[in-house]
Amino acid sequence: MMARQTKSTAGNARTRKSLATSRARQPLKPRANPRRGLIVFGCCVFALLGMLVVKRDNVAAFVNRPITKVRMENPWNRVSAAEIRSLLAGHMGQGFFEFNVAAVQDDLEAHPWIAGASVQRLWPDSLALFLEEEVPIARWGDSGVLNQRAEVFVPPEVDSLASLPHLVGPEGSQMQVMQQYQAINEQLFPAGLRLSKLELSSRGSWNITINNEFEIAVGRTQILDRLQRFLRFYEAEPAMRTATIKSADLRYGNGVAIAFKNEELAEIAASQL
């Protein structure tokens, strides 16, 4: 019994000695040191900050580049590229972050043909422009133009819009005159006539010019009914005769008065129409 225990004890001793020898042969692993890692990280951060301080001007210049390019986001018909360059000249070259978008938008919208402007910065050095141009519907008064919202704007080249209908009326009557123009023009169109001028006087009386050839005094009331009476007369007459009409007066209860260019036929009244 004692011999067996002695052998067992000797075997355990040899095993422990073998393990110790094996461990002695392996290289020692360094213990993880969190303080050392923090020190290394802090040194890297301070080194980076030092570089940024030294190179701050170069970094700022790279990030805050001057605006030098313009990109069109939609086609323009009434506004030229030269006009846009002139409007932007005082703003170009400013840094990306200092660039005053609101001021540029105000300058662009001051142009008579620009109804609205959208201005967007594109890093690193560009602008994107989207311009909404005015749509001319009719001339207004002596020098104004009406857009589709019956708003008045004054472009410099009104003479180039001579083909547009000419509307005249008291201040603030733009929408009323435009709506009346549309209603009258719908009546004239089937007869092949074009309303070239419509005027509302300060007393509320309407006068129209047809095809830039002859004038019609319509009066204050029953505008469309009186005009329909004239059209019945016009369509019943031969084309050679209607071509000589000088003017018409519809301010009668049951007829119209027509003045012809031929003096012999002047002031002929057509009643009961």
Q: What does this protein look like?
A:
It is a single chain. This protein has eight helices and 13 strands. The chain folds into two domains: 63-133, Roll (Ubiquitin-like (UB roll)); 138-271, Rossmann fold (3-Layer(aba) Sandwich), CATH 3.40.50.11690. Helix 6 packs parallel to helix 7. It has helices at residues 2-25, 34-54, 56-63, 81-88, 101-109, 174-188, 223-236, 239-242; strands at residues 69-72, 114-122, 126-133, 138-140, 144-146, 152-153, 166-168, 195-200, 206-210, 214-219, 245-249, 255-260, 268-271. The radius of gyration is 44 Å and the shape is rod-shaped. The longest helix has 24 residues, at 2-25. The chain is 38% helix and 23% strand. A ten-stranded mixed sheet has the order 6-5-4-7-8-9-10-11-12-13, covered by helices on one side. A three-stranded mixed sheet has the order 1-3-2, with helices on one face. Strand 5 and strand 6 form a beta hairpin. It is α/β, with parallel strands linked by helices.
